[in-house]
Amino acid sequence: MTDKFDFETPNYQPSYSPINFEIPKTIRKKKSVKEYIVAGLLGGLIGAILMSIFFMAYFGVNFNNFKNDINSTLNSFNLNNSTATEPITKTVVLNSGNSSFVTDVAQKVGPAVVGIKNKGTAYNWWTDEEQEITIGEGSGVIISKDGYVVTNNHVVSGAKSVSVILSGEKEVPATIVGTDALSDIALLKIDPKYVKAVAPLGDSSKVKVGEFVVAIGNPLGQEFAGTVTFGVVSAVNRKLDMGNGVQIPLIQTDAAINPGNSGGALVNSSGEVIGINTAKISQTGVEGMGFAIPINYVKPIINDLMKYKKVLRPTIGISVMEYYDRSGNIMGMYISKVYPGTGAAKAGLKEGDIILQIDGKKVTTFSDIQSILSNHKIGDVITIRVLRDGQTKDFKVTLGTPVNTTTND
Q1: Catalytic member of 17, 139, 154, 409
Q2: Beta-ladder partners of 238
Q3: Structure confidence by residue, pLDDT tens digits, 357-366
Q4: What is the Cα–Cα distance from 231 to 101, expressed in whole angstroms?
């Protein structure tokens, strides 16, 4: 029969949690005849040794030489390999990995993580009328007592109406405050009377590779609402194309993130939201590669959506198109229009200039420009290198507000 191990977990400690375990005595088996013979021989040997020590002491025999002989004899029995029955105590140190850590985080943030239903309409041929249907489900995070809920843009994209399912499965109506496709962030609002918990927002700039994180959301919809998964930060500043030409610096984690988790919370060990879960790599043979938008990236977007219902991104003040050389290779971006009063116009850029670089980075697509501008704010000064009349020139351009709501630079 194999040994049985009993584990004892001490009280929760915020940083390191030692787990002491003890290997108890083994169950004694009935001794064989051979074992009794060996035991008898050992008993006789010990008795003989004791008698010999008595006589040596009496007759003055050299005790040191005799001790060496005895040690040699005992070693020949290989007693070190015998099965010890005394308990052995060991200590294993784990870095914040006990159940209390995850439980505390789940209890603190879980009630602020909600389900999101994206609703549309479909024609019912049997009743000859339109009826409301759920076309998608995701997750969201309550971030204020005012009832603001942050989620992913793709969770509510195309919705005719949206509802929020609170912890406890109460479904309440929600309004879409604003959406931003470039960052994949959307802001909703529910009646403040329904707010029972608010998730605290952390500082994603302090996130380190290897630290523990907890993902909370509704994978596969409301049936698995409030699912908690646990893992580590696998990487930071992962630049992935979100499908709109803009590369967002993402937090990578091996905490399980599945369809329906989008818009949910990625939480650190202090119970602070450090990211909004948004994507995973789901190709065959790939496991444990989920991604979250850093909360520091999300905060200014939320603020803009609250104030303006849209995100005010910095713009150069130009319209561009791709420019090819005679061999069909893209050289840069051709400026087709410069808008009056913008940073581009004030800096001296002209129609016909070919943008080669911005802030020292090569530019060959409109997505390149978007990605560079996503790291700047209104009022920042950038350096644009252009090709004009066969010569390269650098211009300092102050980024401004959008020219109008329908123009994209």
Answers
A1: 154
A2: 250
A3: 999 999 988 8
A4: 12
Q: Is 154 assigned a catalytic role?
A: yes
Output the CA–CA distances (angstroms, integers) from residue 145 to 90, 173, 188, 193, 359, in the order listed.
48, 16, 13, 9, 41
Contact assessment for residue 131 and residue 119, using Cβ atoms and an 8 Å cutoff: no
Reduced to 3 states (helix: H, G, I; strand: E, B; else coil), residue 116 is: strand
Nearest Cα to 375, choosing from 361, 396, 395, 354?
361
Give the pLDDT score at 349: 95
Catalytic option among 180, 184, 353, 409: 184
Integer CA distances (angstroms), 272 to 146, 202, 285, in order = 19, 5, 32
Domains (range + CATH), the chain = 111-194 (2.40.10.10), 211-308 (2.40.10.10), 318-399 (2.30.42.10)
Q: pLDDT tens for residues 276-314?
A: 999 888 777 777 888 999 999 999 999 999 999 998 889
Give the N- to C-terminal CA distance of the chain in Å, as an integer: 75
Residue type, 134: T
Q: Output Rg (C-alpha) for the chain, integer angstroms.
A: 35
Cα gap 71→74, rounded to integer Å: 5
Query: Catalytic residue at 184?
Result: yes
Q: How far is residue 138's CA from residue 265's CA, in Å, rounded to a whole number?
A: 12
For this structure, is 376 an active site residue?
no
> % helix / strand / coil in the chain, to the nearest 5?
25, 40, 40
Q: Over the stretch 184-213, which tens digit does the pLDDT of each residue have?
A: 999 999 999 999 999 999 999 999 999 999
Question: Which residue matches tokens 């019912």?
Answer: 124
Give every CB contact of residue 36 below 8 A, 6+ residues apart in sequence.
none
Which residues have C-beta within 8 Å of that of residue 368, sequence separation ≥ 6?
Answer: 333, 358, 361, 362
Active-site residue, from 139, 262, 319, 371 = 262
Query: What DSSP element (H or E) covers 344?
Result: helix 343-347
